[in-house]
Amino acid sequence: MNRKMLLAATAAAALLTHSASAEEKVFPAKLVSHAVLPAATFIAPPKDAPASLAVSAKFTGPGNARAEEPGSVPGKDGIRETGLSMPFDGQPVQGFSGIRKMEDGTFWSLSDNGFGAKMNSADAALMIHHLSFDWDANKVDRMETVFLSDPNRVAHFPIVNEGTESRYLTGADFDVESIQPVEDGFWIGEEFGPYLLKFNKEGELEKLVATKIGDMDVMSPDNPSLQLPRLPTGEMPAFNLKRSGGYEGMASSPDKSKLYALLEGPVFTDGKPEQVDGHDALRILEFDAKKGEWTGRSWLYPLAEGGAAIGDYNMIDATTGLVIERDNGEGTAASACANPDEPKADCFPSPSKVKRIYKIELTDENEGGPVRKIGYIDLLKIADTEGKKVQGGGEGFYDMPFVTIENVDVVDDTHIVVGNDNNLPFSAGRALDKADDNEFVLLEVGDFLKAE
């Protein structure tokens, strides 16, 4: 039996024995510390950046119409105004999408691609950040920001700043979502291709790797290789991944020899998404970081009942890891709209229900099939008996009712760090009329990390 047939047989057997809807164990989580970076945090672009990056979010109005006057277009979450208006003077540090702890106790993270879409993010500079947290003062310290660029013309397509000397990358070039620091730079997962991108320590693009599952190319509708036909009667280009379905999470093996890139959406075949027991399943693809190529090995991550996407992924050890899973809701049930089909400015039409961090296991034995979901912690029910929260929650608890929570990593044997992506200035899940801040929390989860 060849490898392809063996993987198919292994996956089929796993699907028969796995139940994504089986009862899962819920583990307790306790809030230890809480740090907040205000939503309205902006920085100047590099001095050698083109003038177009001095003011950002110029194309975020209705129909992506241009707006030149800073503050002339109100930010909205649906019909609710968020209190921040666009365009912005400078670049927003905004939502963080991926985090990794370093040996010295600091962290690397990255800003999301821009303003939620390829079409409106041509003036959003891509950047990564070196962070530390002053947990006692409840503050996020941005120690260093590295702006990403392509001075050596590694990208095989025209970038927005193609004709400039600095060639800074923007949110219309790549949708960067996950990060793994390595000795000589950073591996970053993005969603437009989807691609794996290798940058040096200066933020210069060195390698671009297209996605393959075996012999199959994986492409989103934003892949720059896809082109519409010349005539309306021509054949439309084929893609097999939904928009914004690329590498939302990317873990690394403890020895940093392998990357485990996790797609946010399922791969489609013949118009149908990959599934396990009727639940959409997302691919985890193994990549050899030393050789710079895919190994051909993969696993399936089945979404829970009510789950719609993942937010981040990091390993605990060689076989177990942490995955954020979420629905598309935001806000609390206490402020839900009476009729979800009739949203109003004073209520949440679809409040949060599934905001979790799962502990999973992937081994040689379950390769090709679904990972084992050991259990989860509920990010809507975090104990706060000592009153450590800065905002949110209620008496004796803290919650994270954000639509996107996209940062998780292990801090030590009993603690993890978790943070949201605030989708500036469009998400307002903490309050009905205020853009979400960037919130990071330190959680005590010893039993969860030890669970088998």
Gap between N and C termini: 33 Å
- Average pLDDT rating: 94
Global structural class: mainly beta
| Main pleated sheet | 5 strands, mixed
* CATH fold call: Neuraminidase
Helicity range: under 10%
Number of domains: 1
> What assembly state would you assign to the polypeptide chains in this entry?
single chain
Report low-confidence residues grouped into runs of 5 or more: 1-21
What share of residues are in beta strands?
35-45%
CATH architecture label = 6 Propeller
The number of helical runs is 2
How many β-strand runs? Answer: 34
What is the molecular shape? globular
Question: Which value, in Å, is the CA radius of gyration?
Answer: 21 Å
Q: What is the topology, as strand order, of the major beta sheet?
A: 1-29-28-27-26
CATH class assignment: Mainly Beta
Notes on the protein architecture:
The chain has a 5-stranded mixed sheet with strand order 1-29-28-27-26. By secondary structure, the chain is mainly beta. The two termini are about 35 Å apart. It has helices spanning about 5-15, 445-450, and strands spanning about 25, 30-35, 40-45, 55, 75, 80-85, 90, 90, 95-100, 105-110, 125-135, 140-145, 175-180, 185-190, 195-200, 205-210, 210-215, 215, 245-250, 260-265, 270, 270-275, 275, 280-290, 295-300, 310-315, 320-325, 355-360, 370-380, 380-385, 395-400, 405-410, 415-420, 440-445.
